[in-house]
Design brief:
The strands form 5 sheets. A 6-stranded mixed beta sheet has the order 3-2-4-5-13-6. It is 10% helix and 49% strand. The chain folds into 2 domains: 216 residues, Immunoglobulin-like; 78 residues, Roll (Pdz3 Domain). A hairpin with a 2-residue loop joins β11 and β12. The chain contains 5 helices and 21 strands.
Length: 305
């Protein structure tokens, strides 16, 4: 399948309850020697993971046996999950070289950090993300969230589960207690993207069919992304071309995860053309995202005064 996407976009990261600028996490690599059966485990901390050549390490050790790599890390608000097991590829004949394969997913966020109450009735708000769905409701630290989307939330796990079942851009009711009063309001669920990283065959570039390269990572999909103009002072033109007939949803998302705009578009004769006009006062970096079924295409646009 060939998809050509032309737009302004980047990546959204989304945790179910709270999105915040932070750095933490690690990746654990386990190798099992096929001859000696010796097992070695190596943990790559977040402050080293961007400099560590996972592809080269996996290629070297997969030649000797089985390699698995799993983990999640967050760098300045951008989350990456790593999931790899060499066994299936090796059963099919193996590879001489393993390269990164990157996909993106879009996840919803409410924008709060919470803990259970002593009575286990609702969750106590401990942190609020600026410009988030929660802040738009008027929720403040010390308030108690009782229900989200008409479901009770009595723990952080409850909140994460309920929010994860919503859609980015969905209008949902939220009930919360503030200063002894129970309030019911609606809000638009925010979103960010999560990067999913695994390893597989390297795509060889040719004149006839050159692979798409994003952020230095060659992917198996032939995807072309562009926007004009970028940077822009106000207006951005987006073109999305696909051989899939499924409708697409276009999002404009601020870097804090708040939704500026979202709308569904039909693919007509393989194309979607979008003209987006930023409002006065908007400047800095924003994310344009197109979601078509389970695929997400993203890049960043810069708005200048």
């Amino acid at each position: 399948m060939r998809i050509t996407f032309t737009l302004v976009a980047m990546i959204l990261f989304a945790m179910a309850g709270l999105s915040q600028e932070a750095t933490y996490g690690s990746v654990t690599i386990t190798t099992t020697n096929a001859v000696t059966k010796e097992v070695n485990k190596r943990v790559i901390p977040v402050d080293e993971v961007t400099q560590f050549n996972l592809s080269a390490y996996i290629t070297e050790h997969a030649a000797k046996g089985k390699v698995t790599a799993y983990g999640t890390y967050l760098i300045e608000g951008e989350q990456t999950t790593v999931a790899f097991n060499s066994q299936q590829i090796q059963d099919a004949g193996g590879l001489d070289t393993y390269c990164k394969v990157v996909e993106y997913g879009l996840k919803p966020i409410l924008g709060v950090g919470v803990e259970s109450t002593k009575t286990l009735a609702g969750v106590l708000v401990k942190r609020i993300v600026s410009n988030s769905a929660a802040e738009s409701l008027g929720i403040e630290i010390g308030d108690v969230i009782l229900t989200v989307n008409n479901e009770e939330v009595n723990s952080w796990c409850d909140l994460r589960r309920v929010v994860s079942q919503t859609e980015v851009g969905q209008i949902v009711p939220v009930q919360f207690r503030k200063d002894g009063l129970v309030l019911s309001k609606t809000t638009v669920i925010g979103g960010k993207t999560i990067e999913r990283l695994t390893f597989g065959p390297c795509i060889e570039e040719s004149i006839e069919s050159a692979p798409y390269t994003a952020n230095g990572v060659t992917t198996a999909s032939e995807i072309e992304m562009s926007v004009y103009p970028n940077p822009t002072q106000r207006v951005a033109n987006i073109r999305y071309t696909s051989d899939e007939d499924a409708p697409v949803t276009f999002f404009v998302i601020a870097m804090d995860g708040s939704i500026l705009f979202h709308e569904e578009y039909q693919v007509v004769n393989g194309d979607v053309f979008i003209n987006y006009n930023f409002q006065a006062g908007h400047s800095g970096a924003y994310q344009f995202v197109i979601q078509q079924e389970d695929k997400v295409y993203v890049e960043q646009v810069q708005v200048i005064d």
